[in-house]
């Protein structure tokens, strides 16, 4: 799974309005549009449910003050809120 895809999915909330997926809806999207392996799909859905509640707009603040963004809860050092930036300039 490439970093670009992770950042794209994590940044969905910046590019378009936030969306909270249903389990089956997100599973289908990850399988059909992003090439996730079917055998690992249930693991990914479980991870995303616990990290972001399947919400692309999820922003969580860590104890150190940094923030995590999107479905995959990518840390703010890799991306910036509302603009390009961070280590990956994403």
UniProtKB/TrEMBL annotation:
Catalytic activity: Hydrolysis of (1->4)-beta-linkages between N-acetylmuramic acid and N-acetyl-D-glucosamine residues in a peptidoglycan and between N-acetyl-D-glucosamine residues in chitodextrins
Enzyme class name: hydrolase
Pfam families, per the entry: Lys (PF00062)
Signal sequence annotation: 1-18
Domain of life (superkingdom): Eukaryota
EC number(s) recorded for this UniProt protein: 3.2.1.17
UniProt-listed GO biological process terms: defense response to bacterium; killing of cells of another organism
PROSITE patterns found in the cross-reference section: GLYCOSYL_HYDROL_F22_2 (PS51348)
GO molecular function, one term: lysozyme activity
Similarity annotation: Belongs to the glycosyl hydrolase 22 family.
Protein name, as recorded: lysozyme
